[in-house]
Amino acid sequence: MKKILLIVSMGLFGMAVHAQTTVEPEFIGECMVLKPDQSTVLLEKHMTQTRSAMNAGMVITGFGSVKSKLQIEGCCSATKLKAGDDIQFIVRAVDNNTDPMAIIKIFEFDSSKKFRRAELASVNTFGTTKTNKLHYLNFTGKKYGQSSYLITLKDRPPGEYGITVTNPNSLDEKSTIIATFSIL
Asked: Residue 63 sits in which domain range?
């Protein structure tokens, strides 16, 4: 009887291991690209800077707007993906019980030779404030492993992009870490 139970449990364990061949990222907030051959590549991570600037009209006449932007160094990501391919990511979170749309954001950067920037908010002279001005990509998400999500991009226009993961259980978010990639 013990031998039969041992054989059955080994068989079930073997099927469970074989069912999921790729691993989860090591740390919360890390993201991996899932390639068609089921191998993964860890996306590069960046610390962000927040930059606020007035436009010329505000400086000269006092009328205009002040914009607040996230900024990271460098023109482009080392991870290049093709727009025609299915693009999937494995994103590690605190757990995978929350709707991924609530905690994972994939957004576009404006790229220059030295920086990548994304506008967070703007305030004009008349007091109008516009927040959450990031251009987001649509995606679908499924639970993956113990505490990750399998994210599949619906939109794949060419550009520079960033992924952020927030912790819904924490009121004390540390600095913003962004994982980056490019779509060609």
From this structure: 24-183
The dihedral of CA 56, 59, 64, 69: what is its sign? positive
CA distances from 19 to 23, 82, 103 (A): 11, 27, 27
Tell me how many domains the chain contains.
Answer: 1
Q: Indicate the pTM of the whole model.
A: 0.78
How far apart are alpha carbons 139 and 154 in whole angstroms? 5
CB atoms near residue 139 (< 10 Å)? 21
Q: What tokens does 60 get?
A: 């000269």
Angle at 80 between CA 79 and CA 86, to 5 degrees: 110
pLDDT in tens, 128-183: 776 677 899 999 999 999 999 999 999 899 999 999 998 766 655 556 789 999 99
Q: Helix or strand or coil: residue 111?
A: strand
